[in-house]
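In full, the data.
>
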Amino acid sequence: MYKLILCDLDATLLDDNKNIPNINIVNIKKAIDKGCRFVLSSGRSNMSLNNFNKELGLNVKGCYCIGYNGGIIYEVDSLRVLIEHLLEGKFAVKAVRLCREYNVDLMVYYNERLYFEKPSERINLYAKRSKLIPIQVDNLENVCANDVSKVIIIGRNCILKDIEGEVYNRKMDSEMTTFFSADDLYEFNPLNIDKGTALDELSNILKIDKSKIIAIGDNMNDISMIRKAGLGVAVRNGTDEIKAAADYITEKTNNEGAVAEVIEKFVLNM
């Protein structure tokens, strides 16, 4: 029997309207009742994830959460941080300076706050969906005087791909881990830290063998945990790359309760 499910949030657990389909909630509770832990593993901040943990009834003792694409692991009830990895400030500054060369919206997460320089509709929408109140500053480089959780940009996919190419041209991939978390989101994270490393760390904390873990996701930032889990699952609406890495592809999309399908097939009926 599988003992732990690590589940991405956006476009996986959530539908396109950023709501959790009721069938997912029902089956998650059934899985927990059967002895299978359920842990959100997201690129979102812990501040944003806490709202969804409450909705799922996971804000109780013995529940855990992974945020910032593996940058943080914490206890949901106490909010006590068990493991935290930060992006060095000097590398965050390099990311900020690179992104300023392009027509993108730029943000930095630091000390449980979201910072930005120039207001935009895309930033407003991102903050609203993340249930955060962003803080405007004159210069994000000043925020990056400290080590930060991550740098994230919003923009057209073609522009973000140009930035990704420049990351490799400038050899910045030797200083930080970068990837797409959605078609319009590109992130700069601590070097060699991702959802896969978080899977390793949480499995050690809980003493659960990786063969007993299910990982579910839809995008490039989910591939590392999908490859390491005993059962790696891509939702039907996921990217071609993640489907190629998965052991199982759901018949349903995120809008139809793909997570509930996985639980029904691999936990409740096993």
Summary: The longest helix spans residues 157-169. The domain at 89-190 is CATH 3.30.1240.10 (Hypothetical Protein, Haloacid Dehalogenase-like Hydrolase; Chain: A; domain 2).
